[in-house]
Amino acid sequence: KPDQDHATGATTSSFGAPFGSSKPSSTVGALPSAEAAERAIDPWFKEANAEDRQGLYELMQMPIERRRHIYLARRSAAQYQAFDAFTRTALSCGTHQLLSAVAYYCIGYCSIQDGA
User: Is 0.70 surpassed by the pTM of this model?
Assistant: First the structure.
């Protein structure tokens, strides 16, 4: 059963959310203040000064080969090739074993059916 706030006449659900209030919200359709708009664009105030960004690694000008993430990706690619080769070999052997087992099962099943 919804509760009714007797002071404002608004009906609220049992969760406390306004439900069917007769008074419209003052923020609906209102333009944000300049301070609120600035806060929405830069919520942590990190882009106010360019001096704050001078030491950031991501913004430094350097050749692409010297970037840390490129170096790590190239180094791990060599190790990935070994894992990939092992995986393909193991999967191939496993598939061969599965097909051999199915073939032997079919041969045994047919042998029993024929009364061999």
Answer: no
